């Protein structure tokens, strides 16, 4: 029987990978597979064996987007969940996300901060994070006012303008419709959710936050290095790709960027003058 959900974990020198895998296998309540893409390294000690785990090993690192695509290529589930290799999840996250996911939705769970050594949530007033906005340079930023709004807390499934790329969930067919992850245009790493969110919103889909479940992402307070990084040679490609959205960023785009800004208006860092400038480009 094919799994309902395929979980893709791109991993590059990740020291908390096994904890993340164990957490996913423990917390999932449906039929899942976990596809781990080891991007140019072998973890020490080796990962534990489980029939639900599939491993793709690349002899040399090829980058996060390529790793995600390699996992999706063998995924058997109706749904996809991509997660960073240092995340903890709520019990039954898979069932809750699938219950509230339309065919043209990208869904993110509520986000907390994780202490990966203790494998526990960090008490930080910045969290939980439900809402993020796109700044005028099209980077996702936590939307403090919305995250603290008591009325919005009552809306358990709601629209969000943007999000972080650490965890996202969608129907696998929709991943292919959105033509993710486009390495030729965006490069090997960076601006992951800008690509996802802008393609989704501006082709007529919806980016949603589901507050009925959550994940916790490594709050980078320790001295451990990051798994993935952005080479200097890739920065200009990533920036140019995102900047195209101010005109027309993708051949399936139906709506202008100004439409998205106006949908969530008022948006921090944006002015009416900036919207008019985007509208006339």
UniProtKB/TrEMBL annotation:
GO terms for cellular component: plasma membrane. The keyword Membrane applies. Keywords: Cell membrane, Glycosyltransferase, Membrane, Transferase. GO terms for molecular function: glycosyltransferase activity. It holds the Pfam family Glycos_transf_2. InterPro entries: Glyco_trans_2-like, Nucleotide-diphossugar_trans. Its main location: membrane. Residues 6-120 form the Glycosyltransferase 2-like domain. Transmembrane segments: none annotated. The keyword Glycosyltransferase applies. It is found in: Cell membrane. PANTHER family: GLYCOSYLTRANSFERASE, GLYCOSYLTRANSFERASE 2-LIKE DOMAIN-CONTAINING PROTEIN. This is Glycosyltransferase 2-like domain-containing protein.
């Amino acid at each position: 029987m094919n799994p309902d959900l395929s979980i893709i974990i791109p991993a590059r020198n990740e020291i908390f990978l096994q904890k993340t895998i164990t957490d996913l296998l423990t917390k999932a309540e449906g039929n899942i597979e976990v596809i781990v893409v080891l991007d140019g390294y072998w973890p020490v000690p080796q990962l534990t064996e489980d029939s639900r785990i599939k491993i793709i090993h690349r002899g040399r690192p090829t980058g996060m987007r390529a790793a995600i695509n390699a996992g999706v290529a063998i995924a058997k589930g109706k749904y996809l969940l991509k997660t960073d290799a240092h995340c903890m999840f709520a019990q039954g996250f898979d069932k809750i996300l699938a219950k509230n996911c339309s065919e043209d939705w990208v869904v993110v769970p509520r986000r907390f901060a994780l202490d990966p050594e203790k494998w526990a949530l960090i008490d930080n007033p910045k969290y939980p994070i439900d809402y993020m906005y796109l700044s005028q340079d099209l980077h996702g930023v936590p939307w403090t006012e919305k995250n603290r709004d008591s009325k919005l807390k009552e809306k358990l499934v709601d629209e969000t303008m943007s999000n972080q790329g650490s965890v996202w969930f969608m129907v696998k067919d929709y991943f292919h419709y959105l033509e993710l992850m486009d390495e030729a245009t965006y490069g090997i790493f960076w601006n992951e959710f800008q690509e996802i969110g802008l393609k989704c919103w501006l082709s007529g889909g919806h980016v949603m936050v589901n507050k009925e479940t959550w994940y916790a992402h490594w709050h980078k307070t320790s001295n451990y290095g990051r798994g993935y990084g952005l080479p200097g040679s890739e920065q200009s490609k990533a920036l140019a790709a995102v900047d195209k959205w101010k005109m027309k960023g993708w051949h399936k785009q139906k709506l202008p960027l100004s439409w998205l800004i106006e949908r969530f208006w008022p948006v921090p860092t944006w002015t009416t003058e900036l919207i008019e400038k985007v509208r006339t480009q």
